[in-house]
Every structure is written in C-alpha cells, then in structure tokens.
Amino acid sequence: MSDNKNPIPLEKRLITGEITSISPSVIHLSLPVDFPYAKHARLAKDNFPPNRDYHDFHLHEKVPLFILQATHQDRDLFHATAKWAERNTNPWFTEEIVKGKTVRGTATDYVEDFGVIISLDNGVEGFLHISAIPGSTWGKKITDLIHIGDNILALIEDINRDTLEIKLNIKKLVEKKKQEEQWFYEHEPFPGEEGFSDEPATSELPKAIVPANTHILLIDNDPFFSDALADWLRILGCEVTTSTNCEGIKTHLKQNKITHILLDYRLDTPQQSRCIRELCKKETIPVVFISGDKEVEVCHEAKKYHWDYLPKPVNMEILQDWLCKGYLPEPAIKPKKQNMRQKNQSLWQASYQERVITQEGSELLAEICQQTACCAALWVKRERIGVFSIRAYHGMEKSVLEDTQIFFANTWLNDAIESGEDITSMVDRSGVLCRIAPQDSQYIWVFSLTFDGITDRALAFFRKTPFDGACKEQIKQYRPRMVDLIRLLILTQHLAESETFASLGRVNSGLLHEIKGATAPLLPLLDTMKHTLGDEPETMACREQLYRLSRYIKKIHQLAHTNLELIQKEQREKISINTLIQRIVHLFQTTHNDSIRWELVPAPSNLTLTLPPAVIEQPLINLLDNAVYHLQGKENGKIIITVESHNETPETPLWVLIEDNGQGLTAEQRTQLFSPRITSKGQKGTGMGLYISRNILRSIDGELELKDTIRWFGSTFCMRLPMRLADMKTER
Questions:
Q1: CATH number assigned to the domain covering 340-482
Q2: Is CATH 3.20.20.70 what the domain over 102-190 is classified as, yes or no?
Q3: 9, exposed or middle or buried, with CB in 10 Å at 0-12, 13-18, 19+?
Q4: Integer-rounded Cα radius of gyration of the chain
Q5: Which intervals hold domain Response regulatory (predicted)?
Q6: For the structural domain made of 569-731, what CATH number should be given?
Q7: What are the tens digits of pLDDT across the range 687-710?
Q8: pLDDT average, residue stretch 642-668
C-alpha cells in the first residue's frame, strides 16, 4: 500500500463539518480546527445524504461526514460523503470488507495505463492493477483487457483502512475457481478456504531485462499513478523509492543508490531543475520528465537540460528501453506527424454512408471555427456511462485523440452532459482536454447537445481569446444544422437496417419454398427404406440411423412453416415443455459431450403449452449454440438449463434460463447484444441470431433478456414465455 496518501484512523474520519458554500453539484464545508488532517471538505452531489438536494442545505449548517481521500489539487481539501456518516451504515465498519473475501463490482474509471477503479456493490471503491487481470501480458493495454462498465468478481487481496485502499485480484479468483471446478469434475469433496494459499497470484508478465541493481526515484504527487507505476517497475525487477515532492531529493540521492529519476513536470521549478541537474551530472543519473501536459512545451524543457520526456499514460516498452539504454528513442519525444487526410478521417467506425455524414460534421466544425476565430473543435457522443465515441473534430491530431479518448469520462465533456450547463474556462485548467488542445489555444468552451429529449452529446471549442457572449451566440446558431446531421445519421442507419431485412425477407421466402419442396419427397423415401430393411437384428443399427435422419429432415420441413406457426398463436396440440427442451439439449449433448458438462433442471411438474414449438426451439438452439461457441478451449466448461415457473409474473410465468461458465460479456458487448449485424464470432457469425430470437419471442409478447454476466465467470440468458396461467396446463 502507498505511504504517500494521508493515513487517518478510521474512527477519526467520522466528523462534523460546517457548510461554507453551496452549488447544485458540490457543497464545501470547513472542518473543526482540532482536526489535524485537513481544513476543508468537498461533498459532491452523489454523496449528499439520502433524499436531500442542494436546496435543502443552508450556509453554516452542521453536516455529519465521513472523510474520504484528499483531492489532487489541494492536500488540505478532502472528498467526503454524508451517506456513511453513521457507523451502522458505513461498510468500512462492517464485515463487508475482509481480506480474502469475494466481492462483486463494476469498472468505473481507468487509472492511466496501469489499472482501473472498481466500484463495489456496497459503494466502496477498490483498485485493480493490470497484472491482476486475466490475460495480462507484456504490451497489453488496460483497455484491451477490461472495459468501463464491465461487471467483475474479484478477491480482496489487501486492505489499508487508514488510507481507505483496497487492492483487488481477479486472476487469483479465476485460478481458485478452476481448482474448484477440477475437484467437482473429479467427484471429490472440495476443500475449504484453508486449502488455498493466501499468496497473491503470480503475474503472467515476464520480467524485462533491466540492469541489475536498478533503483528508481519516482517523484509524482498523483498517488494512484505513482503506486501503479511503482508496481510495474517492481515487476520488472527494479527497486523503487517514491516521493510526492522535490524537497528531499538530495537526501534520497545520498541515502539510496539511485540510478534513474522519473520526475513529474508539474513539480519541477527552475531552482529544483538546477539542483537536480547538478546532482545528476555529478552522479551521472539519467532523468525523464513525465507529464500529461502539452508535449511541445515539456519536450522543450527536457531538451534544455538534455533530459528525456515521456507523456502520460506512460508507454512501458519505451520506459523499459530507457532503463536499459539510458536514453529514449527520438520518436518518443517528437509527436508523430500526420497528413491532412489522416487528420480528417473519422475516428468512429461506421458504414460508408455513416462516415460520409460524420465527415460532414467535421466540415461543419471547420466552418464554425473559421467564422468564430476558434482554433479547434471536438464533437463527442456518450455511448454509455464512462465511454465516449468521437463523432467529428477539427484542428486536432488523431493520434492524440485516440490516446485521450478513454479519459473523457473525467472531463468537462461528461460534466456538460450530466448537468446540461455550459462550461467556460482556461485550457490549462481543463485536465485531460489540455492534451488535445492546440498549442496556441488559451480558452475552452464546452456545451451539451440534446436530440429527441436525450442529452448524450457534447462539443468543445478552443480559442486564443476569451469566449464572449457574441461568440457563443454565433456558435449556437449552428445548433439546428448539428441536429439535422444527427437526424440524417439516424435515418441512414434505419434505412440500412430496413434494406438488410427487406433483402433477408425476399431471400427467406424463396429459401422456405425450396426447403419445403426438397424435403417433402425425402420423408416417404426414408419410410420405404426402413420397410425394405425389415426387422432383422443385423439391420437394427442402420434402421436407427435412418430413424434419426428422418426425424431431422422432418424438423427441417417443419421449420419451413415457422412463419405460419407464429401467426397461429394457439394450437390444439399440446406440447410438454420438459420433453421439448430435453430433445434439444440431447441433440447438443451428442456433439459436445466430451468438452462440456450439461445439466438440465426441468420444471417441477410436466407443464404442457399451447404455443408453436418453433417459438421455443429457435431461440433456445441459438442460445445453446452461442454458449457452446464461447466455451471453446475452456477446461471444465459447463452449461445449465433451468425451467422455472413464476406465478408472481403472470404475463410471463415460464422462464427458461441458460447459464454458462464462459468468459462473460464486456460492457460494450452488452450494449450491442440484441443489435442486428453485430457479432463476436468474426466471419463465423452473422450477428442476426439473438436479434431474430428476441423478435420471435416478442411476436407472441414474450421476451429474451440477459439476466446476468460477469467477466471471466460466465453469463445467464432468460427466455420468458408469455402465456397466461390459464393457457398453461399441468399434467400430473
């Protein structure tokens, strides 16, 4: 755990503050003078007491608080929450947070390239390092391994209650789960928790070849960044000393055999630079600036002292190269140049027609900038919480946008969408947006855009001079054209989808006719062959094969009538739901029994339905086929099919649950799950299976939904069949 975060005993974090200022999104409070750790507290809107808005507070009111972490801007200003102001409602004082316990949470925010913040179900935040994520190997990016919004299960690996830090580990839990499954498959009683080592999971990251006795002095006032980078460096075999300022650098150099220095550019001063330069020249210690600020400015400062520069997030391969050689390659300092065609290319992956419209958006931004003397502009859309797509831009480098896109959730772009209010400020106070700003821009203006009552888009404009009222009004006059582009884009997507299904319908109508015509003569031919074989024992195996072939051809013949069956919702013939599902599961078992363990939990009684079989068979086959595909290569794969009766939901009383222990779905996959023409199977998939399956069930007022999914631990889908209880017969 880090020592550079302010340790405060847990009991002392329960305190009362006095309100000094009130705004819709944040309340500031002064803390008692006898509280030695901080002078002020910041209470954000999502940490207000339950059922209270900012209108309910008044100046000088006393508010019970629980002190959280210090803000990065001011060490005397701490974040706080009023939701945990009492011990009995505070998870830090309960048994919910225990080392070795399995917890569930959601990925909410990236910490540079080293890890991700996980919001646990009890509201506490934990840190997940990249080395504790399954699949992490050297060169893998955090964004390739885990997505914002992913649901995860993890073990609590370490806790520091004085600094409110929790370290999580998924890799260790996955390994433990594998051992449990192996014991289960061997039909042996599985040992308890004492059967497992409490040592952290071994990282799959190979140790890099760095010089022996490498000792790095890391100077940075961002505790999350310094902790994560220090962990990475230790994995490489380096010894690391961290510091939050430059004051004690001379002492560090004397007490430790420092071989390299990583220095936060923001902490540097001319006096410190001269001191460090003299010391490093005497000791021949290489120095690298690390910063998230404008590259050109930092590069200039670095070259002045013959030092090197690395932008945040730090590229670990380049850092390793520096540790081995003592200098950085030139491309690490000089930003990559791009031609105009690359600059204007849309970052948003879409069809050709959609890209044309997106290009028109970039041209519109260029026109606005020319008319209003703006240096650059950016148009983004929030696809889901924490994830933004870039729809258009002007005057910016594509590579810089790609590098900073994952951090947009922590910028004024997200704040403008959340609040619906415009934000105007200096560029150097805009956080991550400072990285994408042109070098000569000084001011930024961010505002949101609403379409059809939904506010999920934001625009940012950059300017050398302040944004006055006339300039803002001139830009807002372009809003109707922006809305027209959005409307045109949505219409284009709708027409493309309609054309796809119109073509599909035309093809299917011909296919149904051909299938019906081709299978009709096969059935009597197979019957004739069975009679020809007779009843002799030596022909029994052949007759059995003909019987199976006849059954499958009859199935194909029946599928040709699916459309008629769906129109005719009520049938006289009753079908047993258990028998129907058992037949389909048996079909999959015969082909995948060696690699997958199948388990069927039938309905408690033999339910019979008056629905056409196709409305159950087609979605179920698709779900089982998807589950089998995503279990490929997994040891001890398992699929559980459960039939349940839910009288408490009379509109959909019969549920069929399909659960697997595969890799689970990412947040991005969840948002696109039932969209047409989107598949995770590459060339093997069409992207139509789940879309068609859901539409089949909805055509009879049923539903297909994702019940639950956890990364690396599996998913559960639910088919809800829409019969009234009067339509569902029970045979004893």
A1: 3.30.450.40
A2: no
A3: exposed
A4: 31
A5: 215-327
A6: 3.30.565.10
A7: 778 888 888 888 778 889 999 999
A8: 86
